[in-house]
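Researcher: Quick one. three chains, 1205 residues in total.
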Amino acid sequence: MVRTKGYPAALDQKLQDTRLHNDDSNPEFTKNVKAISRTTAHMCYQCGTCTGSCPSAPRSTYRIRKFMRRAVLGLENEALTDPDLWLCTTCYSCSDRCPRDIIPTDVIMAMRNLAFKRDIIPVNFLKTVQSIYKTGHGVPNNDVNRAAREKIGLSRDPPTTHMYPEYIPGIQKILDHYNLKANSDRIVKEREG
Amino acid sequence: MVEKKKTTTKKTETKKKDTKKVAPVKQEIKKQAPVKTGPSEKPRIGVFICHCGTNIAGSIDIKDLEAYAKTIPNVAHTDNYQYVCSTPGQKKITDAIRDQKLTGTVVAACSPRLHEPTFRTATKEGGLNQFRFEMANIREQNAWVHMHDKEGATDKAKDTIRIAVAKASLLEDLTPKTVPVEKAAMVVGAGIAGMQAALDLAAAGIKTYLIESAPSIGGRMSQLDKTFPTLDCSQCILTPKMVDVGRDSNIELYTYSEVDAVEGYIGNFDVTIRKKARGVLTMAEAEARGIIGGGCNGCGDCDPVCPVVKPNVFEMGMKPRKAIYINHPQVVPLLYTIDFDSCVKCGLCVTACGPERKAIDLEAKDEFIKVKVGTAILATGFELFPIEKKTEWGYKKFENVITGLEFERLICASGPTSGHLVRPSDGETPKRIAFLLCAGSRDNTGVGKPYCSRFCCMYSLKHAHQIYEKIPGAQTYIFYMDIRSFGKAYEEFYYRIQDEGTKFVRGRVANILEDPKSKNLHVYADDTLLDRPMDLEVDLVVLASAVQPSEDTNRTRKLFGVSCSMDGWLLEAHPKLNPCGTTTAGVFLAGVCQGPKDIPDTVASAEGAASAASIPIHKGEVELEPYFATCIEEKCAGCGMCVNLCPYSALALVDKDGRTVMEVTEAKCKGCGTCGGFCPGGAIWMNHFATPQIVAQIDAFLLGGEQ
Amino acid sequence: MSESKFKFAFYLGCIAPNRYPGVESASIKAMKKLGVELVPLKGASCCPAPGAFGSIDLNVFYAMAARNLVLAEQMKMDIALVCNGCYKSIWEVNHKLKHNKDLRDNVNEVLKEVDMEYKGTINVYHTAELLYNDKFIGVDKVRDSVTNPLTGARIAVHYGCHLTKPHKDREFEKEVMLNTEHPVWMEELVAALGATPVEYRNKMQCCGAGGGVRGYDIVHALDIANEKLINITEQKVDALTDICPFCQLQFDRGQIEIQEKFGVSYNLPVLHYAELLGLAQGMSPQDLGLDLHGISCESFLQKVL
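Model:
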């Protein structure tokens, strides 16, 4: 059975073949997830301890168990294009309880890394990068806070990159090594114009 | 017991006579000692290479290997075959020995643990002494571990064969030693496994010592209410067996006792039993002390006067007992026990017992009894994994989270609640009950157990059934990953339980939280089939806790020289073909100590072990491999340094023809080689592992065959 | 107080110095009284945020955290920090780099470009850990340092996630800190200040802010925080305490957002344990900059001052 049937678009969508086919699986995906996550995602036996522990699951369609299954089967597209991938709060409750000693949270992180390679990433993540590139801080200082700091006897800027901006070029070099700023700027621009 | 000691002494005497009987064998071997410089004839070695189907041939180049083997010094004949262990394969060996006038054989195949006996027999049938055979392991230690490196594996196989040929060239004739077997057996542990094994041995006419560390027999099975899938009452089917054990004249039962020390070897184990101070005399013991008509009759007059209250472990701590106690009314033997760790020695029980019975001795001490047995069966059983270690389920933190074994006591008519299942927090009847399977089993975190505990699925199904039997309107939930109902009539039982209304939730429970007011429990899990997380409020949670070897298993197995696997279960000689045997000859395994088993499997294993343990006894004698040390008296300086080194106390200095020389007691020698490796004068010859043989092997390896 | 027994490089992170400066000043002063000197870690940056950076590229995450570690290595001092998120980045990367040569080599290749080398010579501690572990301070010393006991205050504890989870990778000397299901060690620290720690439903649940979720789907993140706020306020508490400025932001500023978006309000004061400790040691609310909090701490202060 051909997967795209050549019907009018709406019908093609409605009647699409939803079965799992061999070519849905990319064995490389399983390997990549394992390499980046440094945990044994392929050992999942689908007990659901992870989802049962997950604070995001009860209020969304996010199912970490499903992502683990996708890691096992190599379902790269399905995993990386699912917007639920970004609903993990990284609380590690699943990782604490997983009987197979897997760290599912790190599997999610690895999948997010792989998604980013395909430019799939929510913009807020990139804005943190831009902020750190500029100031060294993800949540930078502001004038209200400077005044408050002074009032309680602290320096207006903390002794971080804020007080010592000469450290910022070093940070920029590291981020540039990975081309992270350029990529972030490009993606943010594409999304927000 | 005094009488028994006598029997034991008599036995030892008989044994001494037996030792004399085998003395000629010893002398024969002694005679060989002076010629221990290697056989005089020119060695002619035959090398037989096994393909083992593709097991070996798949990763080793057999042709190349055989071509190489032809070039090894002393090799007079080579051959290869698909399965050398098969009848035609063995015929190749016997024929070649005759036709090629071989002096030794080498088979390059699997581990000697598998087929050394086979090829020794073939060598013998060809007309050579069976110890002229050497095995080169090119399967387990080569083909299987170097599956993806054919060239490397072939090179390694060449080394292995060259080394084996070097040894085979120097092998000499040896005669196996035969020792008589004591016509008695020991069974350690009197749960259903140990009881069944003892009953079988006894029925086969073998005197059997049955040792149990608890005050009474019956083990875990006596704690169960009903058994799956037939729903027989556990006590009803167990009690007759317990009574039989107590009555059988061939069974000598030692309760509240443990094995203290083991010496000897198959056929002749000297076992010391420690009878823990029980503080209560049996009628026989009383009579032996001259108290006619006295001793404990189980009347229980002592119990109410005892002021010390302790938790009853048989009832999983849910019922109190006194410092002087029996665990439950059906105990065998019906004999009270004093827990001297908590007894305050107030003497009230002594008064209650009275001057006629005089059954209580507050000054009792441990007694040690020595017995001799030919074979032994370990049946030390299991205990529950301490499931409180899995903190997410709150056992021991939340009152209404209990274990399966606690459930058994709570649902049992003779249990602490007379069979009324109640919530520990408030004594109310629970209506919503959740069962958690794989609680601590199939757990790779290092906290729980990696294995399947095998019987929890089935007993949890049974528990669910029992709830519907007793609590109308109840609702049970079974949280599972897989239902493993593999036994006879088990799947049908699963069908029945589902039909009765149990909801099966395919999901492992993530965690449990307690409502602080109602003490109800919230069970959090993922219904993986529905793909929906759940928060299920229930009145009671039952954890099907993993099982682990019983506390005393490790100590006992060390005494008998039995190995265990990483998780502590005792190691069988072969998982498929010798599941009841161990690598220690004469020691066998029964029941759960070897790995989790349900009752049918446990009983089958016990009968298997009993059968295996009775074979050497019925044969009357066993052959020991003649791998012991021998003293070359001309070279021995009598320095005696070896005597202290020997871990088995097998060596002694004796005066012979006016000289002091070392002498080996072969029955004690295990052939470890400690003495042989140490002797400064080279006066100790290790049969079959002699210095020239080992040096030749090392040379063959290091010099690459260029010697 | 005489010469400090212990000195640590004080890694500040972002939210503590830039949103809740009282956490910074209270930590320095309170720890000083307890014999621990916190020395500024000059030029430190964002840890970097484990959710954001870890999600994008773990290699950048390792390298950026390693840069902060190297700054402390150059000072030859162990790091102390006040934030669970920072702990995850700084402690965990330190741990990973110490134990994995491949990661260490990769990181050093990048650090070479900025004339740095990660050597793995220091350890990383959360101040809560220093306070709890009697090798450094311990609960008794904390209790002894109290001049203004917070008597009568009912305080709920939020442990947060990244200090102790995943527990199988953590290596606390105090084993009770590895209990991530029913821990009570922070309650002990709260009780040491004279306050009454209060248990509540599902105490170990996450605040909802981590993993970039607060930025990605704010109502989702707030709904998780709200569930906790419901469970906490059920117990009639006077304040919530935390050991993570990011969790604090989520519960403190988050309450305002919850009010705006869901129309429910709790007015539950949220204080970092360092702020509580400062108060108990006699610092004034002004010294602690408590007026910067989104939710007024007034009701709580009235109870304890």
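Chain A is about 50% helix and 0% strand.
Researcher: Thanks, that's what I needed.
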